[in-house]
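Let us walk through a complete example step by step. Step one is to write down the protein sequence. Step two is to encode the small molecule, zinc ion, as a SMILES string so that its atoms and bonds are unambiguous. Step three, shown after the inputs, is the structure prediction itself.
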Amino acid sequence: MKTPLLLLSLFITLFCCAQQQFQVNHGIDTSNVYTKAILKKWKKYVSYDADYLNREAQQTFGGFWSERMIKKYKYPDLLNYCGALSPSLLGLGLSNKVIAISKRNGFYWLKSIFYYAENDSVFVPIAITNYPFTNENNDFRLHNTLLLNTSTWKKKTVGQIVYHYNSSHKFNSKTAFKANSAYLQLTSLFGIKPEKLNYYIFENCDNLYQTIGFDYRIGMGGENNRCGYYDAKNNNIYTGGYENPEFHEHEIIHIINNSFSNAHDWFLAGISGYWGGHFGKNLNYHIDRVYDYLKKNPDVNLNNILAHSKLDDFTNPTYVYGGIFCHLALQKNGINGLKRLLSYGTSDDDFYNAIDKELGIQENEIHTTMMKLLEEYSTKKIPTISYRDLSGK
Ligand SMILES: [Zn+2]
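Step three: the predicted structure of the complex.
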């Protein structure tokens, strides 16, 4: 679901070029030979430079990650690809301060804080993470927090989906079958190979982030302790706090993201929100809330719609506006129209160009068009064109 993603993308550009700092807090015994070796490796791992961005290539994981992790995962750093941050946590080029290294259950756990400084007095923490190190042939290598924290969890395979959940969760096979059907329908509709999908179920959002290794992550807190995300690198889904969690439809729809790397974020978010709702409610619920808000705030001008991605903890307008544009594309030109909408590029200009070319809506007409549509859909409900019908399965 990636709620804070858009917010983050905005400020990333503000600090991307700032000097990256690496520090070790007072109180850590840097004379200890193990601590020294771990810090050396960690510093290299979190340092950001142009070459280092190539860490995403499989071979660069060697030297950092344990052999077992490299074998097990396509991209072993599951925390880095946590969907709430864009680009990834390490890709943000943040400063890092190590605050503790403790030995627990045979692992050396490195706790650190990722942050940036806007100036001398404004310090912005983005995440506090826990990364376990293991001593492998006299060399310290990273291991995965999620794997260690879920080692006693249950595992169940339903079709192409492998579910992972705590023993306190009552697994619902019927819902899981629905999820697998949806996965197969979507992969078939978009011509994607239906690879094995790992699917993790958590009690709530806090629990989700803690289990993958965060003590803190920007955007945490608030009343809505529910979230989910899709890790496109590893084909993993994470869902926390929802009813019927075996079928988190919104996140399953995100599996198409990999196939549309040239799509604007708003359309990819939109299609998930259109077919799968968000925050546990369908699109109609959110249409009503957004329309209500706009009626009460007549000064909002949607002609620069991309600047209006925020409402509150319970509705994200990105999914509403993006979803309506996807609906219009489907209505006008069917699945091929939608696929074309997802192909114009990722910049803001590409976004406006896509709605002009595909939907015939020019930038200065967005506000009037959107208000008219919101009014119509809030009285008559949006006539959703489902992926089930389109896939013919
Ligand atoms: Zn989403």
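Step four is interpretation. The pocket of zinc ion is lined by residues 1-2, 250, 254, 269, 272 (CB under 6 Å).
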